[in-house]
Amino acid sequence: MSRIGRFVEKVSRQRFVERVLRQRRIGRARIDPESDAELRTAILLRSARLGAGSVREEFVTSLHQRLSSEFAADPAPPAPATTRRRRFVQLAATAAAALGVGVGLDHVLTGAATAASPVNQSDLEPDHATWRTVAVSTDLPEGGVVRFDTGTVVGFIRRTNGKVAAVSGICTHLGCKLSLNRPADQLDCPCHGASFALTGAVVQHRLPIPLAPLPDIAVRETGGVVQVFTPNA
Amino acid sequence: MYPNWEAIYRDNVGWVYGLLFSKVGSRPDAEDLTTEVFLAALRPLRTSATIREVRSYLVATARTVLADHWRRTLGRELTTLDDELFDPALPETDTSRDRTAEADRILADLQPNYRAILRLRFLDGLTLKEAAAAMNVTVGNAKVLQHRALRAAAKVAERIGV
Question: Hey, which residues 10-49 in chain B have their CB within 8 Å of chain A?
């Protein structure tokens, strides 16, 4: 490392330690990984101060207010037709998790969820929709995958054995946008690490609840273009 | 089972915060991350999950939130949340007691002036100026001393595995 590099590194490291001592936000920093043990020791020593890990009452109150307004603004969606089945599955998952106690946490969660992967794949059938062109056929060779966004729906189209098919590109857990993981040929959720096959089937997740597969979206190929049947804006 | 999300929040906010604080060492950061955990975790948790499941899910969420925090700030995961830290039956609400024991073990292995500067600054909460006055050295000396002491403490921590 150059002299200037060493100086910059020293300043960043000192600032990190001072922020821990003064209880400021640490923020972005470029620090050589060689200093990691020192930074961790600073955190350990600071959190050893008596009562350091106790939460402030003001914070508890303000977060409570924030959560209340979030949940009041967004009531639970109406129960779907499969409620009864889902509740059964939920109980099964709960029981499975209870039996799995003592196993590593991830195994409990994954195991319970996979054992109870129950929800059937549904089709996206909008009430008022039109065919929209989202790709030209030559952009979608055999084995190819293309992401599309019509404004109302995002998803992925693929070509397998010459045929085109499409699934939604939104995670069925909390609605985060999925990204295409090409080496693994799957769709990954950035929020909680769930992943789906290109067919929409659940590959893996660590949620304590059953996860639905991605809905299929109607797709057709006509006149050298690929179109999806999606709702009007 | 918890009757509602408010019960989940009240019963668990304390230890979630304590756990995160012991991993980031800064109150505003620990508060930000605690907020993220509850915003992300409460919605899917409004189901009939057991207390143990709720806590396991909160820890799993906290683990992800902490990893994202370090990737955003340092570009690597400086600290991680390990399974062994956490007992879903009885989560620790004040992690400072465990940390105090670990800190004592580290400090006991250091030369006296290193031990003194770290104790004054990290455990007693003195400013650099106050610590320098208490040790009867210049502020510049105290600064150098603190840096060397922290480096020595990090070596001890690695050796004794805390």
Answer: 10, 13-14, 17-19, 21-29, 31-32, 34-35, 38-40, 42-44, 46-49
Question: What order do you get walking across the sheet with A186-188 strand by strand?
Answer: A179-181, A186-188, A195-197, A202-204
The token duo for B93 is 């609400």
Asked if residue B66 lies in contact with residue B80, where contact means CB atoms within 8 angstroms, the answer is yes
Q: What is the CB neighbour count within 10 angstroms for residue A137?
A: 14
Q: Which residue in B31, B48, B68 has the most chain A C-beta atoms within 10 A of its own C-beta, making it the best mutation to test that interface? A: B31
Residue B134 CB neighbour total at 10 angstroms: 14
Check if the beta carbon of residue A192 is closer than 8 Å to that of residue B36. Answer: no
In this predicted structure, what is the pLDDT of residue B84?
Answer: 60
Mean pLDDT across the stretch A79-94? Answer: 38
Structure confidence at residue B24 (pLDDT) = 96
Give the three-state DSSP class for A166. strand
ipTM, two decimals, is: 0.93
Mean pLDDT value across residues A44-56:
90
